[in-house]
Design brief:
Layout: E1 3-4, E2 10-11, E3 17-20, H1 27-57, H2 64-93, E4 97-99, H3 100-133, H4 138-141, H5 144-169, E5 179-180, H6 187-191, H7 199-231, H8 237-265, H9 274-299, H10 301-319
Parallel strand pairs: 3-5
Antiparallel strand pairs: 1-2, 3-4
Length: 320
């Protein structure tokens, strides 16, 4: 049966659904993986929702830095919710099929959110640059209008990247196996199934995704070079430590996120090992969204203070 691709023309393909092979484990291990996956997913939701709630209710967190952090937490919730529910369903019920349209939608949203997060992390680096290198002009450089502009730009670039990639990939023909050697809908494993010439799609995907990943990464790196240069000019060790501490959480998140994303998407297709890709994908698609709120909670005194204030208010209301 023919399937319709996102460009509106017919694909000459017999594939109407895909099978996500997921993790090759025994049934007992599948139950264990389901329990662990569900626990991680619930912790991810709880942690990121807690960050969003704290930022909304605590006046001390009503700053550009936490405005961006709250949006990062929202993206992380959407990011993990794009893949985790289907993965958990497959582990629990053993139903590993997904429709052609379902695969398209999951891949589109996953790539959109990944690209958006790349640019948003750059916006957060710019915020730290403005705060440390230009403290007297910070209110102007990070006005409410600029914050919303940075957020809109993040989503626009993420969507543009995803539209191009999704349209190119699904303009190909799929007439061989429909088994995807992965646990969610991603670009590299799908390209392996195409019976078309994928060289153009791979080249465009590599270049566009490379720009969305490498561009923000290089600008983020430049921001931190300028930050370090500015911090080293601070005379007191305590002042330097305080300045660096405001960047520690963001720098940790950036290192984990970009490291895994670059490993997955910026390698030549010939060097792709699906076992390695699955392990790395677990890190950036499942574990990183869970770790981000924990990193910001443990390493950020302002967030810790907001947690204490929220708990004290709750305890006080219970006593009354």
């Amino acid at each position: 049966m023919d399937a319709i691709n996102p460009l509106g023309r017919q694909n000459h393909t017999s594939v109407t659904e895909f099978v996500l092979l997921g993790f090759a484990v025994e049934p007992k291990q599948q139950t264990l993986l389901f329990a662990l996956g569900l626990l991680v997913y619930l912790i991810t939701l709880a942690g990121n929702l807690a960050i969003i709630t704290l930022i909304r209710i605590d006046q001390c967190l009503q700053t550009p830095m936490y405005f961006l952090l709250g949006n990062l937490s929202f993206i992380e919730i959407c990011y993990t919710s794009t893949t985790a529910p289907k993965m958990l369903w497959d582990l629990l019920m053993g139903d590993k099929t997904i429709s052609f349209i379902g695969y398209t939608l999951q891949m589109y949203f996953f790539v959109t959110l990944g690209g958006t997060e790349c640019v948003l992390l750059l916006a957060m680096a710019y915020d730290r640059y403005a705060a440390i290198c230009h403290p007297l002009r910070y209110a102007i450089l990070m006005s409410q209008k600029i914050c919303w502009g940075l957020l809109a730009c993040s989503w626009a670039i993420g969507n543009f990247n995803s539209i191009i990639n999704t349209a190119l990939v699904f303009s190909l023909d799929f007439c061989h196996s429909n088994e995807i050697d992965h646990f969610f809908c991603d670009i590299p494993p799908l390209l392996k199934l195409s019976c078309s010439d994928t060289s153009v799609s791979q080249l465009v995907t590599f270049n566009i995704s490379g720009c969305v990943i490498i561009g923000p990464f290089c600008l983020t790196l430049l921001s931190y070079i300028l930050i370090v240069s500015s911090v080293l000019k601070i005379r007191t060790a305590q002042g330097r430590l305080k300045a660096f501490s405001t960047c520690a959480s963001h720098l940790t998140v950036v290192s984990i996120f970009y490291g895994t994303i670059m490993y997955t998407y910026l390698r030549p297709s010939s060097s792709h090992s699906m076992e390695q890709d699955r392990l790395v994908a677990v890190l950036y698609a499942i574990l990183t969204p869970m770790l981000n709120p924990l990193i910001y909670s443990f390493r950020n005194k302002e967030v810790q203070g907001a947690v204490r204030r929220a708990l004290s208010i709750k305890v006080g209301s219970l006593k009354r």
